[in-house]
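Reviewers asked in the last cycle whether our approach scales beyond single polypeptides. To address this, we selected a multi-component target totalling 252 residues and predicted its structure end to end. The input consisted of the following lines:
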Amino acid sequence: HTLAVALTEALRDGQIQIAVQPMVDLVNGQVHALEALARWHHPELGEVPPEDFFAAAERSGQVVELSRRVLDQALAAARQWQEAGQQVRVAINLAPGWLADPSLPGQIRSALARHGLSADVLSLEVAESDVIDEPEMLLALTRLHEMGARLSVDDFGTGYSSLTFVSRLPVDQIKIHQSFVQQLRADGRARAVVQSIIDLGRNLGLEVVAEGVIDAYTRIELKRMGCRFGQGYYFDAPMPVQELSWPTGRRP
Ligand code: G
Ligand code: G
Ligand code: MN
Ligand code: NA
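The resulting structure, written as structure tokens, was:
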């Protein structure tokens, strides 16, 4: 409850800002896309974890307002990069309570228009568990894809319905959950899971992004296994938009 009250103030006072984290092309080291992640620095509480304030926002009915702020900042950043000559996509995470909002496609369409951007600049990350068998949500995502937005399955492999999801939706990208990626060296089973997801993505013609890349070993192995994209602290931690060195240099 108190977090919900604090969140109302935070939205009013602009305490919530996005951080961005690159997805890196493992073949050429170039930044492929940037994921926007919400950050709340509260004057007394300090950094509030996004899991906590999104949960509070879902309960208090503020998740649409919060998500729209993130979208607006992400599109402002994308517009800025475009003006600097960088064609790079920006990814946002779709919270369940926003996905359930029937006006979501319209909100995204008008936000794009406001920023003078076309929908193909935007990637929408959805955790498979958010969507299972909700016809309205599947329809909203299909509509957004028809507009030109990319669809990405976040935390791939951790839900019940990974395969249903990729077979029912016009998905463009899958992101392998970091729990598998980080066990690559130590655990032969995790390695087999990662290889299977990479192969599945390739067979379906999807972009495959490995999350949680934390060292050179993992980066090299992923590329060897046929994974095209990686994201993680080895390349960059999420950072404030103004800290992104531009034009982006090659990553290791
Ligand atoms: O950003 P990490 O730094 O700590 O984020 C933790 C969790 O919070 C992740 O599951 C991430 O997807 C989620 N998260 C962060 N920012 C957003 C956001 O803008 N929208 C939604 N829905 N989830 C977010
Ligand atoms: O949206 P998603 O649930 O995928 O959110 C990604 C989460 O992973 C965010 O909390 C982000 O800060 C975090 N993250 C990004 N790179 C790394 C990494 O290399 N290691 C770990 N442990 N977390 C990471
Ligand atoms: Mn994500
Ligand atoms: Na994820």
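The mean pLDDT is 94. We regard this as preliminary and will revisit it once experimental data from Aim 1 are available.
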